[in-house]
């Protein structure tokens, strides 16, 4: 059973919040972010503003999944993580 739009957005925010508060994460979480973003990008409920944010999150997750030091990647994006969550709250 696929996740609803609201559940997808909640899961997306949860992973981003965890990265922001824990300053660490896993490749599996980055891959999950990629799948969530792909699914949300084709959803007609998603505004263009939200799609712009999702594109940034997709880049973040792709780079994170391929980096040798994921924790450092997450730490270097601390400002973006909280900003993305705030913007998702605004546009979703």
Characterise the protein shown here.
With 92 residues, this protein is mainly alpha-helical. The protein has one domain. Helices cover 79% and strands 0% of the residues. The chain contains 5 helices and no strands. The chain has helices at residues 5-22, 27-41, 48-66, 70-76, 78-91. It is globular, with a radius of gyration of 12 Å. The model has no long low-confidence stretch (mean pLDDT 96).
Keywords:
single chain; 92 residues; mainly alpha; 5 helices
Quick recap:
This is YtzH-like family protein. The protein is mostly helical. Helices cover 79% and strands 0% of the residues.
Chain-averaged pLDDT: 96
- Give the total of beta strands: 0
Helix content: over 70%
What ranges have pLDDT less than 50 throughout 5 or more consecutive residues? none
